[in-house]
């Protein structure tokens, strides 16, 4: 770190004094260089993959965090049959009141919790809540999910579910010990093209999948350097003195499902490399010249602007992931699935499919494939989900599917093992980057159960109830 902050001053600056073992500070305090050991597998106590929790006719929900993501979740969940929003919690009273007001014309009558940093525990402690829905800054995700599960609540957390390998293991072990679901809210898995191509993969259209590419390419530099977008500048602080892929899940999730990761194949090892930072420190210094508020962010080391990570699976497949939230590039999650008989690529738009080197199929052929391979979940719920909204409807599809599974006692599409594995790329990439792109083993959070687990992403709704979107 360039500035001469001491340990206490740095903690105070970050606002993380209560979380010295997580997120940013753990990477700085513990150091990433060298070869510190980390846990790579465990003896599974109970397999949460395929686990069907007891039916909940009404899913009673406590929502923690109603900022950028949580406020939308409140509105979406209020439109799903069989949901009762019991509590809404945030540090800021104004946000809680706004969230409650947004659903005042519905049947929901949530209790407000705000002000103190421990208020969220009161929500988890209630006996009339089944599901804790977490939409807070990243460092709170694991502590809240773990606390919720230990208090007999299912947990659904925004991404990333964890920031460190220890947190990944804590989520897995807590879920297995309590038999409470822990789902990471990876909405990209419910986007329409991703689900259609997953259906095509399962039908063998692309042959054997060899390679996948995913990304989070989203120019957020002005958002991160805004005083208004993120409470206490938390997301900008996540970019300080860290270097790796800080947000791999959007690109990775759909690829992992197409490759049956955790249920037929498993990630084996990975390597990661980052560019230097050419933009963020420069931006901070320029802002500091005009506004003294930004002086506290000037002359720091920021993460490299573009990170590229490569993963190899046990069955010899490869995955390439990129992270870039700084460069002036059009939004992209790439979403490439390359097989022995064809390829799908979503970005740059429009989405395309090819069966050989001759080129992409025609619009007419693409429309025919859409007709054949659009899955049942899209046919049944897609149009209503688009009307409710949330990234074109994929947020609503994700929420609907979660609630429908809980109401009918079906296994979830995404499990704690997915949450842990996809999140583990963050600390692994940081460690690899810090050690000149060292190759690192990826932990097996299933304890070997990936060899016999069956694929779970039920896009054809073979196990589905009649839950409606209102």
TrEMBL record:
Record's keyword annotation contains Hydrolase: yes
Ranges in a coiled coil: none
Keyword list, A-Z: Glycosidase, Hydrolase, NAD
Cofactor(s) for this UniProt protein: NAD(+)
UniProt entry tagged with the keyword Hydrolase: yes
Domain Gfo/Idh/MocA-like oxidoreductase N-terminal per the UniProt entry, residue ranges: 59-183
Residue span, Glycosyl hydrolase 109 C-terminal domain: 195-347
GO molecular function annotation: hydrolase activity, acting on glycosyl bonds; nucleotide binding
Family named by the database record: Belongs to the Gfo/Idh/MocA family. Glycosyl hydrolase 109 subfamily.
Protein name: Predicted dehydrogenase
Organism of derivation: Fodinibius sediminis
Lineage: Bacteria, Pseudomonadati, Balneolota, Balneolia, Balneolales
């Amino acid at each position: 770190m360039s500035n001469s902050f001491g340990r206490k001053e740095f903690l105070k600056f970050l606002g993380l004094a209560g979380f010295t073992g997580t997120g940013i500070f753990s990477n700085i305090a513990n150091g990433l260089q060298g070869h510190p050991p980390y846990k790579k597998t465990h003896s599974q106590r109970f397999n949460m993959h395929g686990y069907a929790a007891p039916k909940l006719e009404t899913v009673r929900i406590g929502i923690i965090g109603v900022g950028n993501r949580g406020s939308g979740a409140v509105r979406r969940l209020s439109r799903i049959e069989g949901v009762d929003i019991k509590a809404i919690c945030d540090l800021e009273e104004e946000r809680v009141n706004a969230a409650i007001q947004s659903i005042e014309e519905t049947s929901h009558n949530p209790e407000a919790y705000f002000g103190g940093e421990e208020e969220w525990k009161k929500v988890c402690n209630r006996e009339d809540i089944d599901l804790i829905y977490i939409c807070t800054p990243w460092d709170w995700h694991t502590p809240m999910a773990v606390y919720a599960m230990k208090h007999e609540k299912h947990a659904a957390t925004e991404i990333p579910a964890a920031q460190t390998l220890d947190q990944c293991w804590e989520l897995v072990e807590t879920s297995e010990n309590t038999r409470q679901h822990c789902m990471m809210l990876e909405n990209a898995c419910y986007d329409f093209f991703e689900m259609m191509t997953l259906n095509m993969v399962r039908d063998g259209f692309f042959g054997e999948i060899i390679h996948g590419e995913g990304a989070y390419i989203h120019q957020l530099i002005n958002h991160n350097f805004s005083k208004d977008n993120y409470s206490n500048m938390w997301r900008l602080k996540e970019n300080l003195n860290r270097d790796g892929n800080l947000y791999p899940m959007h690109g990775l999730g759909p690829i992992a499902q197409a490759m049956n990761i955790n249920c037929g194949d498993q990630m084996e090892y990975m390597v990661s490399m980052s560019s230097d930072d050419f933009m963020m420190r420069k931006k901070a210094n320029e802002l500091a010249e005009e506004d003294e508020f930004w002086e506290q962010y000037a002359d720091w080391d920021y993460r490299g602007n573009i990170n590229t990570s490569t993963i190899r699976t046990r069955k010899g497949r490869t995955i390439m992931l990129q992270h870039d939230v700084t460069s002036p590039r059009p939004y992209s999650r790439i979403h490439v699935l390359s097989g022995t008989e064809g390829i799908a690529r979503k970005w740059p738009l429009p989405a395309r499919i090819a069966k050989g080197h001759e080129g992409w199929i025609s619009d007419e052929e693409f429309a025919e494939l859409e007709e054949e391979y659009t899955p049942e979940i899209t046919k049944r719920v897609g149009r209503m989900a688009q009307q409710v909204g949330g990234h074109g409807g994929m947020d609503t599809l994700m929420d609907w599917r979660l609630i429908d599974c809980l109401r009918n006692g079906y296994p979830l599409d995404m499990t704690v093992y997915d949450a842990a594995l996809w999140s583990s790329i963050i600390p692994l990439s940081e460690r690899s980057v810090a050690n000149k792109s060292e190759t690192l083993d990826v932990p097996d959070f299933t304890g070997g159960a990936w060899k016999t687990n069956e694929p779970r992403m039920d896009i054809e709704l073979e196990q589905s109830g009649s839950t409606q979107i209102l």
